[in-house]
Amino acid sequence: MTLAGRPRAWFRRLPVVVRLVLAVAVTMSLVLTGAAGLVYWRVQTALDQQLNDDLTTYRHSLDQAVRTGAGLPPGPSGSLRQVLDAHGRVLSSSDAVRREPLLTPAELGVVMRGTTVHRDVGSLLPIAPDALRLQAGSVTADGRTRIVVTAVRRGHRDEALRELLAQLGIASGLTLIAASYVGYRTARAALRPVERYRVGAATLAGGAQNLRLDVPTDRDDEITRLGHTLNHMLDQLEAAAERERRFVADASHELRTPLTLMRAEVDVALHRPRSAEELTETLRSVDAEVQRLIDLSDALLDLEELGGTSHITRAPVRLADLVDTAVSPHRRTAERAGYGLHIDADDTTVDVDARWLVPAVGNLVDNALRHGSTSVRVTAAVRDGRVRIRVGDDGPGFPAEFLPRAFDRFARAEASRTSKGSGLGLAFVHAVATAHGGTAQARNTAYGAVVTLDLPCRAPGGAG
Asked: What is the pTM of this model?
């Protein structure tokens, strides 16, 4: 890691609250430094302007007096003066600087060439006892060159600037402390819900059930939306766990019966000698139970896949072709049983997932053929952006007590308990409808039972 990267890595390892406070402190320091520098510069400029104006006015009056030979006028309070000849000898001077020339030999040469010299004597910090601001220029009197030097003491100006620096430093420090404190409190308040969410997640990881985060309902900020997202994730996790529990429970419940029958058949075959015909019949019975186990496992896996999929894959398909594909495998069964199989489907295009919808309709046709009397009717139409597929038979219909739980897993009418089927067909149909964002409805009519699939679809053309 480079030297420049080490501070960044160190900064990223700090807690979020500390990073936010440091960012606020650094930003406020820059802002306060800039503001204090601007205020100091404005005050210093004003004081210097006043000082320079007084100094210039005093020097002009001295220049006039030296040119005319009049007496030298008094200057402002704390002012000093010197009049020098061309060789730097003091001709006239204030008492405080009578023996000490205010100009250096180099500055004297500059003034003799006609340039005005400005210079500060002493510094603002550390404090100098005799801080001056001087101005020197040449003037001609009686044909001879004279150097007029004026100076004013900077004590009041420097004292005012030092006082200003102290006040700015105190004010900036207090402001920085206040801003850092407010930033710390604000960051803690803003991140407090995140900490609650973290504790809640830790509780969930510890085995808590039905946990939901306490998210305010009267706000819509980033933290609140995070809480809603986490709650939605918890809903999905709970739903997935519930599906897993149901899958295990359903599988264990339904697999027990065929496994028990297979074990009984094998035990009987092993406990006494059996003829070849009897062994063949036993194997056929075991094969039937194995096929039942395969069908049951396939149905459970299909239900699990549908329940665990957040969306299906829609694709354009001709509705008439979809219904024909679903019904075709059952035509021979209907012919052997002497059933009439009537189909009435719109010739239009819909956007659905045919991979799931075809077996769902096929399940309904298979149920109708098993429970009907003489005929099965399948209708499919698109109206108002929805496709409605109805499968009806002319049988006795659903038992009244069975209708409320017709789409539950392993729900079977008492009259059909001994018939073929696992009780997962209608549950699969309901899962397909729900995955499409639609509904499945079972009801009895005057002619028999009818199951209706009502699904939203997009019909690019055709009826609807």
From this structure: 0.52
For the chain, the average pLDDT equals 83
Contact at 8 Å (CB) between 431 and 303? yes
Going by C-alpha positions, the residue among 448, 453, 459 that lies closest to residue 393 is: 448
Count of residues making up the chain: 464
Residue ranges, the chain, pLDDT below 70: 1-7, 204-209, 243, 247-248, 250-258, 261, 289, 292, 295-305, 307-311, 409-423, 458-464
Please answer whether residues 319 and 346 qualify as being in contact, where contact means their C-beta atoms are separated by less than 8 angstroms.
yes
- Predicted pLDDT at 355: 85
Cα–Cα dist 402/413, whole Å: 6
Looking at residue 341, what DSSP letter applies? E
Strand pairing class (449-456; 79-84): unpaired
**What's the alpha-carbon Rg for the chain, to the nearest Å?**
50
Per the DSSP assignment, residues forming a β-bridge with 6 are none
Give the Cα separation of 412 and 258 in Å (integer).
Answer: 17
C-alpha distances out from residue 1 to 5, 14, 19, 318, Å: 6, 18, 21, 62
Which residues 6+ apart lie within 8 Å of 115 measured at CB?
none
Which residue type does 107 have?
A: E
Burial of 295 (0-12, 13-18, 19+ CB in 10 A): middle
354 touches 387 (CB < 8 A): no
Dihedral of CA atoms 168, 173, 178, 180 in degrees, nearest 10, equals 130
Angle at 39 between CA 38 and CA 44, to 5 degrees: 100
Which domains does the chain possess?
222-307 (1.10.287.130), 315-456 (3.30.565.10)
Numbers of helices and strands, H then E, in the chain: 10, 12
N-to-C CA span, the chain: 66
Residue in this structure with the two tokens 């004010």, named with its chain if needed: 171
DSSP conformation letters of 295-317? HHHHHHHHHHHHHT-SS---EEE
Q: How far apart are CA 372 and CA 391, in angstroms?
A: 11
The count of C-alpha atoms lying within 13 angstroms of the C-alpha of 51, restricted to the half-sphere facing its C-beta, is 25
